[in-house]
Fold this sequence. Notes:
globular; 6-stranded mixed β-sheet; alpha+beta; 16% helix; binds ligand LBFN2T5F; Diaminopimelate Epimerase, Chain A, domain 1
Amino acid sequence: MSALANRPFVKMNGLGNEILVVDLRDGAPAPTPDETRAIYASGLTFDQLMTLEPPTGDEDFRTRILNLDGSESGACGNGTRCIALLVMQETGKRRLEIGSAGGTLIATAGSAPDLVTVDMGVPRFDWQSIPLAHEVEDTRAVPLEIGPLHNPSVANVGNPHAIFWVDDVEEHDLLTLGPVAEFDALFPERANISLAHVTAPDAITLKVWERGAGLTRACGTAACATAVSAARTGRTGRSVTVTLPGGPLHVLWREDGHILMTGPAETEFTGTFDPAIFAGTAA
Ligand SMILES: N[C@@H](CCC[C@H](N)C(=O)O)C(=O)O
């Protein structure tokens, strides 16, 4: 029987980005790709499933990020705020160090009870780190055309992002263009695809097609990748409000290179996994 059978979960969201949290700090095994897809197929839907796992060093705990298609990511901004808020509420701590595949993330309680700031680390822009399939001259505008979209900026903020600059995020059909770009041969590990409209030197409107999850109400890492790419290309300053379908996130790209993302997180409901979900899955 799956170790997840009868295990409690917490359903949360960060600006409508749906996060299912599973506490595995007792050392229980993480969901397999098959189990992750089975949970989603059961009707308990989410964009990402995030685990709480035992720390390996000085960190408070570790996390693993699983997209709804079972693939794993190195970073999830909205989900990190969710799990941080959950553990802050449990422990009373106002600062947490969270180990992840993309590095250690520092989460700090914000000025309102639902607000969390996460230090998302330092972005990478070299083509090998995105990663891209081959060298390009300038990662601020790479030679790629997807229908009417062209020359995206690319960045890695723990996961790969391509940002297409547009005049109106509603003008293009991201549902059709997103998966074509996600699977383009330029991106050997696929990519999260954004449409970004810079509306002021400190404001961006953003719509995101997420790798492994599709269209979401918000993507924290896309907001970070877009903000740093906008600043890097002279479109904005280093402090911006990024407005997604689910609401606004504040992103500050500090002079020392670190990205600070601030936004809300909320708990929706709790439950336990029905063992029937896992019948026939490879545990
Ligand atoms: N929703 C997330 C990003 C989740 C991971 C992404 N889909 C990937 O595969 O890299 C966020 O808020 O950052």
